Amino acid sequence: MIKIIIERRIMPGLEEEYEQAAREAMRESLGARGFVGGESLVELGHSDRRLMITKWRDLRAWKEWYTSETRARVMQQLMPLLTEEERIRIYEPASH
């Protein structure tokens, strides 16, 4: 199991449009093979900063989604609403 952390900054005033596009992106990812779950968070006091935390079965499942036509399509809706490129980090459980 891996977790993908995605940080996004939204252009001021476009939060509502972003929410709609992000909901659509999350809906699309629900159908992706290997998608386990996810949540979307807003930074306290900074409505333009969002954090997506998604769980995937493995790295291959994430890469399949990341390079999919479906994700490319939903990102076409999201990208114009952002002030900068999204930052993506991939985490795995620490081995004990």
UniProtKB/TrEMBL annotation:
ABM domain segment(s): 1-73
Pfam families, sorted: ABM
Q: Which InterPro entries match?
A: ABM_dom, Dimeric_a/b-barrel
**Where exactly are the transmembrane stretches of this chain?**
none
Any one GO molecular function term:
monooxygenase activity
Listed A to Z, the keywords are: Monooxygenase, Oxidoreductase
What domain of life does the UniProt record list for this protein's source?
Answer: Bacteria
| UniProt-recorded name of the protein | Quinol monooxygenase YgiN
Q: Which organism is it from?
A: Halomonas shengliensis
Q: What is the lineage of its organism?
A: Bacteria, Pseudomonadati, Pseudomonadota, Gammaproteobacteria, Oceanospirillales
